[in-house]
Specification:
Helix content is 53%, strand content 12%. The longest helix is centred in the first third of the chain and has 32 residues, at 60-91. α7 (165-190) runs parallel beside α10 (262-284). The strands form three sheets. It has a five-stranded mixed beta sheet, with no helix packed on it. A three-stranded antiparallel beta sheet has the order 1-3-8, with no helix packed on it. It has a two-stranded antiparallel ribbon with strand order 6-7. The protein is built from twelve helices and ten strands. The chain is α+β, with helices and mostly antiparallel strands. The chain crosses the membrane at residues 98-121, 127-147, 168-190, 210-230, 262-280, 292-310.
Amino acid sequence: MAVQEARQGPEPGAHDGGCTCGDCPHGAREGHRRAVAAFLVKRDEFAAGQGLPAAVAHSASASRQWVSEELTQSAERVAERGRAEGESWLSRVWQRTACTVGAAVVALLLVQSLTAIGAGWTAARTAGLLAALLVGGALTAASWLHRARGGALAPVIGEDNRLSTSRVVAAAWVLFVAYAVLVLVGRLAAASGPAERDALISGLDLARGAGAVTVLAVVCAIAVLVRRVVGLRVLGQRLQKVRAHRPRAADLLTDDAGRGTFADIQYVVISAVALAFAAVRLARRPDQLPDLPWGLAVVVLVSAATYLAGKYAEGGRPVILSVVRSREAGDLDGPIRTGDDIEIRGAGFVPPGAQSADRLSRMVVRIGAVHVHVPLVPVAGGFSNPTDAVLTVPVPAEVEPGRAEVQVITAAGVETNRYAIDVTD
């Protein structure tokens, strides 16, 4: 349907965002959708050999260069629309946070009301509801104050504009422990006798909440350490990172390319299970910190260690393994000359999350002192060049005959090793 709308063009009276009611968030989202649809139409037409001007149709190299430039310009418009849509989405997060918090408080009230049937309403239920209102109010206020940067999500969004799994897990434990302490504060404020107050204060003893406190300390340390590890690996060119248009919930379970990763999935799942257990323990014993069993706490610690090890193991520097002269059917074998296409074989040329055309068009090959932009070669459903393992670029006439070094610069700005080739006249 989006492709059909792109062929038909925008509706009469609609601005560039595709909306007729002014510059609104829906216009940014619609504008991005239309830009993507128009790009897909153009790419598929070029892949089918359509739309080429007569001035370049006679030359394979000229037509390839013209198609690449046209797709690059169209991809830049898509990226611009994507950034606008991402900023619009972030500005609306605080409203969704307020709605989510309100729904959670109402759900808690309903659960407490249902469970109070027969047992009666207790001071612990009142303390739990007031603690939820305080935590929810703090989240809503923080979301409004940081509404331009993602609201409540601002602390858990990484430098690459994706949700950080380690920060989300740590934030969940911090909020839960804060809620548990507020419940005890409410119980303590409503306590009538010194014996009850002493029992509530003893509920904060480390002997009772050692498991939960240990897990909290470890997940917070993991969040800080992972940020440091990723930053150092990026600066050391051992990890490639590209910025996303906006954070998504799937970032918690996937890598930058959108593929599910075992380390992230197991960390989120085990942490969620442990949090659910701790929440049930708090509901059953609201007079003390949740006494997380050491067996479950150790499971969470093992999961955190696995996640950290996965962060150390992921990524890697791109590498050139070989460079050969590109040969089509019927061509004669020979050395590399200026004007020939060379095929660069290796690994890691396309960083995770850089599969979009605007990212691919930023790849550059340095041949000697000449920088050659990697041309985009469209095929049905994608691009045949560049790929993660093979790049094909022409050797420009500006390259001097003799020994020249080839080096690939990826969309993340990471440089590969240098590979020497011989260029003849």
